[in-house]
Amino acid sequence: MKKTTQVLSAVALTVGLFSSSTSAFATPMTDYKAAMEAYKASVAAWKSTNQTALTSYKAAMADYKAKEEAAAPARKSANEAFKSALDSAKAAYTAAVASAKTAADKTAAVDARKAAVAAATATRDAALKAIALPTKPIKPVLAPKPVAPVKPAKVEKVAKEATTASPAPTK
């Protein structure tokens, strides 16, 4: 009876040593594989999140460009009207200065030109404010890429290290 308990305890001790040693070596790799699966899932989520943000930004930019292009003719016509008003003010000033005989006539021509430029500027500014300009969309800040787990180092066998070590040479 004593002998069977000793044999059973020896078997249990041997099984315990082998099972704990193999599970100790398998645990880092198992943990690494689980971490890799989690990493792959987080990379997929990262890609979809960033792709969604970029897609919505591209759509907003396309809408912004369309609105800008729609407002361009109105801006152009307002600037052309301003330019023609300035040209007519300049022509009127040049004609008034050429026909002016006194300094008071020249001063009146300068004042008339300044008033015409101010009126043209006010008209142009009012026309440009009436044009509804869209606000440019802000480029999204992309989420940082997840960090890959570190692969565990390989555990070298003790017997392999023992054979590679050579004894010191003797004379």
Structure description:
The radius of gyration is 43 Å and the shape is elongated. It has three helices and no strands. With 171 residues, it is mostly helical.
Short description:
This protein is mainly α and 171 residues long. The protein contains 3 helices and no strands. The protein has helices at 2-99, 103-130, 158-164.
Give a topology summary:
Layout: H1 2-99, H2 103-130, H3 158-164
H/E element string? HHH
**Structural class by SSE content:** mainly alpha
Q: N-to-C terminal Cα separation, in Å?
A: 57 Å
Low-confidence stretches: 7-24
Count of strand segments: 0
Largest sheet: none
Oligomeric assembly: single chain
What is the CA-atom radius of gyration, in angstroms? Answer: 43 Å
Shape: elongated
